Amino acid sequence: MAFVTPSAAISAVGSTNSSFLPSPHALHHFSIPVTTQSCRRTPRMHDGPARPPPPPGMVKGKDFMKDQSGNVGLDINSGAIQRRETTPVRVGDIIIGASNPVVVQSMINEDTLDIDGSFASIKEMHEAGCEIVRITCVSMAHAHAVGFIKEKLRKEYMDVPLVADVHHNGLKIALEVAKHVDKVRINPGLYVFEKPDPRRTEYTPKEFDAAEEKLRKTLEPLIISLRDQGKALRIGVNHGSLSERMLFTYGDTPRGMVESALECIRVCEDLNFHNIVISMKASKVLVMLAAYRLLSRRLAEEDMPYPLHLGVTEAGDGEYGRIKSTLGIGTLLAEGLGDTIRVSLTEAPIKEIPVCYGILQGLGLRRTMVEYVACPSCGRTLFNLETVLHEVREATKHMPGLSIAVMGCIVNGPGEMADADYGYVGKTPGKISLYRGRKEIRTVREEVGVEELVSLLKQDGVWVEPVEVVKSPVTAA
């Protein structure tokens, strides 16, 4: 292999060599010199159960990545997303991948040693629609505390699927906490952690192989434990915490991220463990996109159809944090990549959940709320569109799965709202036309428009009375 120093890799930024990227549209400035030989050693196969086959009816991995156009994952005739074929991975009572809905998850920010506080946060998150909850586990004391949290959930609420986050040199911690959770998440760059040597100028092939073997020996006991317990593993690579040898070999690049994950996947496959989910997180959206696209191609080439966990790490807060997360997660989902998502915000974790469901709703992957179609307003608008949209939403927001269009005039209204279940369209000054699908049902006075819309819903038998408190509006798939 041609080994390079970080400075050499950095000097390659801006090169036109993009052979490792998944498409001609990917970012060529992440390129690094191509290795002359693979560091992958021949897999050691053991007897054991085979990987479960993916279900029929989904896009096959090797065929899926052949289309290098901008329409990867999208059916150009229907506009529907053709999802990448993946094997099912069970996490508690939730299944990630295959033809299952994209799963929403997040992470509480309580100290795991605070058993009551962690229990309360997990319960609150789950009631808000978080289907899998992650907790941090930095010591043996934390690992033991997780057991008490899980027991309390079972007795006082329900058995929420839990993931334990294990980091620096965490084998013993991981083995203990694996007894109590449904999935363990490791970061390959930290799981076998050695402090970088500032005096190092190169990583020889012998040193690289020795470090890889150390990772293998440290990872094998955890894999065997998870395999024997029927539990799952997330191989969670972070752009900001690649191991020193990966940085020297591949540079601080998406390729380094992918190679880091593939090392761990091969260890899992050698031990016939396939309950794996993989993530490639970065705080820069473009790095994240390049890493996931490359990973998907490499997994297809090696016939490893494992589910992907999508996220933009350290996205920040407020509107910009939501925009970054939507750009990264939404782009990949539209390409058919991704089986579970987490939006990472510097806010209370519960605020991440509506963003996740909003992304999925916007792409048509899950319908867990009412879909409102509304024009941006213009000089032709015959009523206060913003006010009326708010009134319609307040009257109907408790009926997930319904699609309602609120259009300001008849010029574009009937055509633009054609896919909606019901329509509220300005017809003439002071008059509103109500539609069922494309068919105009009746014209009513503007001041009773919302009331008449509700009456139409009742007439059609689709109306349900709102409940006083809705703990989780995201139960539908």
Description:
There is one protein chain. The strands form three sheets. The chain has an eight-stranded parallel β-barrel, surrounded by eight helices. A five-stranded mixed sheet has the order 11-12-13-14-15. The chain has helices at residues 6-11, 61-64, 115-127, 140-156, 171-177, 188-191, 205-229, 244-250, 254-270, 285-301, 318-334, 352-362, 385-396, 413-416, 449-459, and strands at 89-91, 94-96, 103-107, 132-136, 162-166, 183-186, 232-238, 276-281, 308-310, 340-341, 371-374, 403-407, 422-428, 431-436, 439-445. It has 477 residues and is an alpha/beta fold. Helix 7 crosses helix 9. The protein is elongated and about 80 Å long. It is 36% helix and 15% strand. The protein starts with 5 loop residues before the first helix and ends in an 18-residue tail after the last helix. The protein has 15 helices and 15 strands. It has two domains: 6-362, TIM Barrel; 371-459, Sulfite Reductase Hemoprotein, domain 1. The longest helix has 25 residues, at 205-229.
Q: Please tally the helical runs, counting DSSP H or I stretches of 4 or more residues.
A: 15
Spatial separation of the terminal alpha carbons: 47 Å
* Total domain units: 2
Averaging pLDDT over every residue, what do you get?
84
Outline type: elongated
Low-confidence stretches: 1-48, 56-71, 472-477
Strand fraction band?
15-25%
* Total number of beta strands: 15
CATH structural architecture of the largest domain: Alpha-Beta Barrel
Reported by name, the CATH topology of the largest domain is TIM Barrel
CATH class of the largest domain: Alpha Beta
Q: What series of H and E elements makes up the topology?
A: HHEEEHEHEHEHHEHHEHEHEHEHEHEEEH
Q: What structural class results from the helix and strand content?
A: alpha/beta
Estimate percent helicity: 25-40%
Question: Which strand order do you get reading across the main beta sheet?
Answer: 3-4-5-6-7-8-9-10
Please state the CA-atom Rg, rounded to the nearest Å: 25 Å
CATH superfamily of the largest domain: Dihydropteroate synthase-like
The biggest sheet amounts to:
8 strands, parallel, barrel
